[in-house]
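hiii, so i know i said id send this last week but things got crazy w the move. better late than never?? heres the sequnce for the chain we talked about at the cafe, plus the structure i predicted for it. fair warning i was half asleep when i ran it
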Amino acid sequence: MPWSALCAPLDFATRKRLGLAGSCLSTNAAAFLGLIADIAQHASFPDEEVDLQKQNGLQVLRAQRSQPNYLGREALSEALFGSHPYSHIGPTEQSIAKLDKKSLETFRDTYLVPNNAYLILVGQVPSEADLKTLLTNEFGKWQKKDLPKYDPPAFPENRKRLLLVDRPGSVQANIFSAQLGPTRTSPEYFPLVLGNVILGMGTDSRLFNDIREKRGFAYDAHSVYTPMQETAYANAVTQVRNEVVEPAMGALNEDLTAMSSTEPTAREMASEVPEMLLSSLWSCNLSTGRS
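okay and structure toks below
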């Protein structure tokens, strides 16, 4: 049975991980697992497909780098994460050019091993005994290998920096104000999640009400708190027309300073915060495998 008739389209990779994900009818579960096992253990890279993906990837990258938001996030990531792999939000033209069948096979043989993988099944699965038999048949010959030692470089310390990315012809400016913060395992994490909701999540947040509603500088102003495995970062974002860049940056700094120096109001605590905080808790559960 062709995979297109077996399951919905497969997802393969994100910036943070390499994986296989898909869904199928419960009646096709065994065949679908066989497909996943085959890809995981016997991934192949025909030259013509590698060349096609390189061409497509290069066009996508050039399109992305024509957008101010991408250029801003690129500069921001380099400043926040330094020499850490997190600093790369995408490939470079040089890295795409170097990609070939041999390098992909080397990556496969080094990192695509069972001791560097998780298998998660959700839904109507076979009985425990049948499932163990099925998994043993499909994955039992997948050999464990030692992984290269990983010593992540230290992250830069938070400090004040002004980064300017010149983009001639732009009629507006993208403004980012960010710093590293604690991960989900820190006792400071959930207070920061709550603070981010008040500061910049939704149309009743401080940033939105000030920069858009009160001052009229931008269509949108918001903040995000992004936890990652080894660190996290807070980021306040807005896009304004060029002639109000200076007062908009001043307003953004005022709102950030006020956030760190004033208590939330009773209205802020009682409005949309409980629902949004619950959403953040649910997201954390999904990301960590808890439910």
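btw The longest strand covers residues 172-181. thought thatd interest u
miss u guys!!
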